[in-house]
Amino acid sequence: MKLRGFAHKFGDNIDTDEIIPGPYLKEQDPRKLAEHAMEGADPEFVKKVRPGDFIVAGRNFGCGSSREHAPLALRYSGVKAVLALSFARIFYRNSVDGGHLLPVEIGIDAYEGIGDGDELELDLDEGLVKDLTTGKGYRVKPIPELVRRIIEAGGLFSLKPEELL
Amino acid sequence: MTVSEKILARASGRDRVSPGDVVLARVDKVMVHDVGGPGVVEVFKELEQKGLKVERLFDPDRVIAIEDHFVPPPDQKSAQNLKVLEGFVRRFGINKYYRYGLGQYGVCHVITYEERLVLPGEVYVGTDSHTTTTGALGSFAVGMGHTDVAYVLMYGRIWFRVPETMLFRLEGTLRDRVMAKDVILKILKDIGADGATYKAMQFSGDGVRSMPIEERLTLTNMSVEAGAKNGIIEPDEKILDYFGGGISPVYGDEDASYSETYSYDLQSVEPMVAKPYSPANGVEARELEGTPIDKAYIGSCTGGKYYDLVKAAEVLKGRRVKVRLEVIPATQGVYRKALDSGLLKIFLDAGAMVGPPTCGACLGGHMGVLAEGEVAISSTNRNFPGRMGHRGSKVYLASPATVAASAVTGYITDPRDLKA
Ligand code: SF4
């Protein structure tokens, strides 16, 4: 699996209130949610993001509430994958089980090396992210086996309980 | 095995599990609220568009539906969501249904406790991150998104990665006007906002046993603020009495192994305040003494339980507030008790506003959200940017006693400094 897009860089502890603020939780239409994606962290984000883009973030991305509106809003804004030093578990799980986007753990070298706006190519089979702007490549952490199967199936509902183990 | 491991082993039909194992576990209870429920309905709709009809839930008697986030509905969208939740409840024959204006209702995590809906030893999931709260009663309680909860509603089972357990031994007793909220803010400060990611936080020791159940709920409630998968406390006499039989509690083994062990002497815990913008930004309240505030808020699953109101009222009795104070009892049950015992009078005499049970301003939803530049002290659990209103507002997190004391003086105040 290969993905290509531009990087939008954020810091540590980006919480779900920043990804999609509480008042929008009333909204069920994902396209409407997407109009407010990342509003709490960068109100200009939705103007900048293009289909296929990546978020590159520091530690504990998606901490806070269990709102699946967070990965949903990012997905419908065009974001295909989040590359972060680490993830909060509910956000990680929602991204995968909902089939919304790919959460990929990266190392500090990639986080520091990738600049805001750089063009990236993520190659999951090779376990590499390549910064096409700088020409540098970085290893990403391997995706756990079950997570990979759920992602390839397109979300949790594509598998019956017996097929999970 | 630890208590969390044993519950997961039992629920997945295995003799043994170890941290890192992925298991398929049976779920005993599932909760949806007015934000997560409509999300579940959307998931089912999508499945039906793909030709997979959801005829029935795995077991409607194990499902709990609660109105709490946007009640009473502040606008048409919220009202519509309550209708969607109602349609879901009727369609699938769910009878544990808590609605505003129809008796008991309110913040889900306090409802499950007051109504004894989740038993010790059970696996419990809900569409809310603070589902961890209920673990104080001895269950394995985990918050999930609406896809995962929809999956559980359909199959009654879901995958879990067995978490490592961090053990927090609390010894001794808290001093007067120091609360469990202060303890968890101190722990969060020590381990950080991602200090327990993917892990279980287990609390044990005399210190825990000495706490009323409602205080223990505060510890497990805010475990998620360190990224924990679940917070848990093994049942003791108080819990067994509370449930009064008919339960099968689970305990960890003597030789269970923990990924980390921390010890705290409760005697030495000081009133704590978490500065914006992280619950892990705790400092002693005295260090912030004098910080002016515009508003004080007592409410939520963390700080709107009956015991929380009792402790706030002890501080407020015979005093008047200098800045706005909003008191939002977490549930109708809490509200009624506060009425019967005279607490509401103390709040009203102090000048506070007492509102109906709701999540309300805790998530910046409605009923008292903050304007740009406003500063609040709050007994809730999160102070992220924009959490309780404008992105340019600020929230300090503290115990209900500290919030009450600060409302009286108009600035952040250690509640012990108001004595006499
Ligand atoms: S009171 Fe606040 S933290 Fe608790 S469930 Fe409601 S919104 Fe969430």
Can you give a write-up of this model?
The complex is a heterodimer of chains A (165) and B (420). Chain A is α/β, with parallel strands linked by helices and 165 residues long. Chain A has one domain (2-164): Alpha-Beta Barrel (Aconitase, domain 4). Helices cover 30% and strands 20% of the residues of chain A. Chain A has helices at residues 16-19, 30-34, 45-48, 69-77, 89-97, 108-113, 145-153, 161-164; strands at 2-9, 54-57, 81-84, 102-105, 119-123, 128-131, 136-139. The longest helix of chain A has 9 residues, at 69-77. Chain B has 420 residues and is α/β, with parallel strands linked by helices. Chain B has two domains: 3-264, Aconitase, domain 3, CATH 3.30.499; 273-417, Aconitase, domain 3. Chain B is 31% helix and 18% strand. Chain B has helices at residues 3-11, 36-49, 76-92, 108-114, 146-155, 180-191, 206-209, 213-221, 237-243, 300-303, 306-316, 332-340, 343-350, 400-409; strands at residues 22-26, 29-33, 63-66, 96-98, 123-126, 140-143, 157-161, 165-171, 200-204, 230-232, 260-265, 272-274, 282-284, 295-298, 324-327, 353-354, 375-378, 394-398. In chain B, the strands form four sheets. A seven-stranded mixed β-sheet of chain B has the order 13-12-18-17-14-15-16, with helices on both faces. Chain B has a five-stranded parallel β-sheet with strand order 4-3-2-5-6. In chain B, strands 10-9-8-11 form a four-stranded parallel β-sheet. Chains A and B meet through helix 5 and helix 8 of A and strand 1, helix 2, helix 3, helix 5 and strand 7 of B. Bound molecules: iron/sulfur cluster. Residues 68-69, 107-108, 128, 130, 300-301, 359, 362-363, 380-381 of chain B line the site of iron/sulfur cluster (SF4).
Tags for this entry?
heterodimer, A: 165 residues, alpha/beta, Aconitase, domain 4, 7-stranded mixed β-sheet, 8 helices, globular, B: 420 residues, Aconitase, domain 3, 2 domains, 5-stranded parallel β-sheet, 14 helices, 31% helix, binds iron/sulfur cluster
